[in-house]
Design goal:
It contains three helices and nine strands; from the N terminus they run H-H-E-E-E-E-E-E-E-E-H-E. It is of the alpha+beta class and about 170 residues long.
């Protein structure tokens, strides 16, 4: 019985660890400056998934919690239901805090990967990946992104193996 329990714990640990990884061949930004990344970001594009399905005007806001973790506030407007939706979570660095590889949780002990894989020197535009090639975001400090940054990030994502034709381009009220 003890062997089975150890095996279950080992399998669960492996499954949870795989949720906070980075896709093969993809690298997180390093060096990364957490303080410069904090603040409000507008979603420019994303791969759609169930937690953000049907939302526009989506934003993410990052600040530091008193315990050193990063507070994550995701917001978006559901035009069909005519309501704002908000999720509050926390993020932690997977390793060194100068490598943009984090894990984020909105549901208790369950974490998912959050990896900044490209960012401009002024921290105005970011390309973010999840734990797999099924999660990708393009973020901006403003509601739009310059065409040259958009092209650069799309090319980088496609070269890495992301299917950029699946990106959903987000609408923001002016």
């Amino acid at each position: 019985m003890k062997t089975i329990n150890k095996l279950i714990i080992l399998i669960m640990t492996a499954l949870l660890a795989s949720c906070v990884s980075i896709p093969k061949g993809v690298k997180a930004v390093s060096p990364f400056e957490k303080e410069k990344y904090l603040g409000k970001w507008y979603e420019i594009a994303r791969f759609d998934f169930r937690f953000e399905k049907g939302l526009n005007n989506t934003t993410a806001e990052y600040s530091v919690n008193s315990n050193g973790t990063i507070k994550v506030v995701n917001r978006g407007y559901d035009y069909e239901k005519r309501i704002w939706k908000e999720s509050i979570g926390k993020a932690k660095f997977v390793g060194d805090d100068n490598i943009a590889m984090l894990k984020v949780s909105f549901f208790g002990p369950f974490y998912a990967g959050y990896n900044v894989i490209a960012i401009d020197p002024e921290y105005k535009y970011a390309l973010v990946s999840g734990s797999s090639f099924d999660y990708l975001w393009i973020l901006s400090r403003e509601k739009t992104i310059p065409a040259e940054i958009k092209s650069l990030y799309l090319e980088k994502a496609e070269t890495l193996g992301y299917k950029v034709s699946n990106l959903l381009w987000i609408e923001h009220d002016k």
